[in-house]
C-alpha cells in the first residue's frame, strides 16, 4: 500500500517512539518495529507499530500520554531527562500527516504504539 507521509516527520515520530521504548521499557526489553494494514470504522490505514515487552503504562494514564508535558510518576527522576514533549510531538506530526496515533498495553506485557496513515 502507498500512503502520503513527510519523511522527516515520520523519522522523528519513529525515533521518539523507539527512544522512549529504549528509555522506559527496561534493560532487557525487546523492541519491535513492524508495518501492517489496519482497519477502523471502515477506514483503512497502514500502521507503523513500535512495541516493546517492558512494563507498559497504567491503563488510566494511556489517554494522557500524548499531552504536552505529561510524564509518568515513575519517570520523573532526573535520569529520564526531557520535558514530556516526545509523545506530544508524535501526535502533532501524525495530525500534520492526516494520520493518528494509538497507544495500548500488550496482552503479553509492554506497550504498543501504532502510527496510522490513511490509505
Descriptive account of the structure:
The chain is an alpha+beta fold and 119 residues long. The protein contains 3 helices and 4 strands; from the N terminus they run αββααββ. Strands 1-2-4-3 form a 4-stranded antiparallel β-sheet. Strand 1 and strand 2 (43-52) form a beta hairpin. Helix 1 (7-24) packs antiparallel against helix 3. The longest helix is centred in the N-terminal third of the chain and has 18 residues, at 7-24.
Keywords:
119 residues, 28% helix
Provide a quick synopsis of the model.
This protein has helices at residues 7-24, 59-62, 86-96; strands at 31-40, 43-52, 100-105, 111-118. It is of the alpha+beta class.
Ends apart, CA distance between termini: 7 Å
The number of E-state strands comes to 4
Shape: globular
Average pLDDT level: 87
Q: Which strands sit side by side, in order, in the main sheet?
A: 1-2-4-3
Quickly count the helices: 3
List the topology elements.
Elements lengths: L6 H18 L6 E10 L2 E10 L6 H4 L23 H11 L3 E6 L5 E8 L1
Antiparallel strand pairs: 1-2, 2-4, 3-4
Helix pairs in contact: 1-3
Amino acid at each position: 500500500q502507498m500512503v502520503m507521509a513527510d519523511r522527516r516527520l515520520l523519522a522523528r515520530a519513529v525515533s521518539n517512539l523507539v527512544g522512549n521504548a529504549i528509555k522506559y521499557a527496561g534493560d532487557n526489553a525487546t523492541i519491535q518495529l513492524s508495518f501492517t494494514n489496519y482497519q477502523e470504522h471502515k477506514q483503512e490505514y497502514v500502521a507503523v507499530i513500535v512495541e516493546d515487552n517492558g512494563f507498559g503504562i497504567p491503563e488510566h494514564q494511556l489517554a494522557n500520554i500524548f499531552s504536552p508535558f505529561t510524564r509518568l510518576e515513575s519517570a520523573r527522576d532526573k535520569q529520564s531527562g526531557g520535558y514530556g514533549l516526545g509523545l506530544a510531538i508524535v501526535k502533532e506530526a501524525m495530525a500534520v500527516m492526516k494520520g493518528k496515533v494509538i497507544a495500548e498495553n500488550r496482552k503479553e506485557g509492554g506497550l504498543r504504539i501504532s502510527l496510522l496513515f490513511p490509505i
